[in-house]
Structure formats: C-alpha cells, structure tokens
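Entry 14. Ran structure prediction on the chain below.
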Amino acid sequence: MRQSSGIGVLDKAMTVLHAVAEQPCVLSELCERTSLPRATAHRLAVGLEVHQMLVRDEAGVWRLGPVLGSLAANATDTVAEAAAHVLPRLREVTEESVQVYRREGAQRVCIASVEPLSGLRDTVPVGTVLPMTRGSGAKVLLAWADPMTQRAILAESVFTERQLAEVRRRGWAQSVAEREAGVASVSAPIRDASGQMVAAISVSGPVDRIGRRPGSRWAADLLAAAEAIHKRL
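Output, structure tokens:
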C-alpha cells in the first residue's frame, strides 16, 4: 500500500526499511513481512547494512542503523514548517485543537499540532500514529490517494467510497466519534506547489462543544488555513 516511485529496487529497499522499523527481525521474519523472496530480502538488507541504514547483531536480528539518525537530524519538513506559521491563528479562531497529518502507508502521522490554551481539548502530540480507517483526517488523505490504496484501506474503513466522493466534491470532511468517542473533527487537504495533496489539516474537539456538524462551523476557516499553507509551500 506504500506509494511507488516506479524504481523497483528502491521501492523494495524502502519496504525492507519500513519492515525493520516496525520491529527488529531476523531474515525469515523480514521475508514474511515484505513478501520478498529470501535471496532478494537478504541482498537488500546487506546492501542497506553496508550504508549503515541497517545493522545486524550476532543473533542475525536486523535493526535500524545509525546513519538514519544522522540523516533525520538534518531533515527539514517543509509542510510542518509552513504549518507552524498558520496553525496558531486557526487555533485562535476556533479555540480548538488543530493538527496536520501525513499518510504513511496504511497509517497517518501527526506532523504538527497546537492545543487551545484552556479547557477540555483533543490532545494529539506530534508523532502520534493513527489509523487510516476512521476520522475526518483519514477521509481527506484517502480521498485523494491512488485507487489501489483506496481499495485496500476502504475494505476495513468505517466510511465508504461514496463518502470519499463527497469529500472530493465539497473539499473537506467531517466526523463524529469515529476516531475516538466524544470527539468530532473537520479536515481539509493541504496541497504543495504543484497542486498535489500532501497532508490534511484538522480541527478537533469535544462533540458537546464543537457540535455534530463541525464542517458547518469551521470548514471555511479550515480551507483558508490550508490555502495559507499551500501559498507558503
């Protein structure tokens, strides 16, 4: 379900990295997780080991290597950077929690978040991993995903293809008690300079306060914030 670059060996190598990132494993487990032939999985893992992206202990267990930490330390997340200039204003307008999510395979990850200064809140720290099968943020990320990813995730989702079509039509999504009981949210797509959807921006809060139709309250402000981030990108 991961996106394809069209470069087969690179995509397979990334599949190996993600499999080891989920949990350190021996070669047989790596083959099972990636569905790669044993010889292919071993060749890729050894190649990644040479570049210190993976390391292997005496028991043959593969783990993430030190070079990944070095690369991450110098990485810049342009979407999160752009969002940091916009989210505080959206929080001020809505007085609710605001997040930005990016899809990673069959999950979504919070890459930016601000919380209201007081009162009950829907706290989602940066780095939180959430499912792609429920919630307004998931709907937005899936609505503009590739058809293969949509089919795979929709099979286990609480929403349908018809609902995703509605999200694409109106440009935003809402949910009530899908991700968590008592929480409602509304989300919109963030697009990069080329117009491609790269993340979802969300406003969330207690249903008792935000209401069962959060889109009617915050969709316009949310779309304006998404556009502001788009211009910064």
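The longest helix spans residues 214-232. Will compare against last week's run tomorrow.
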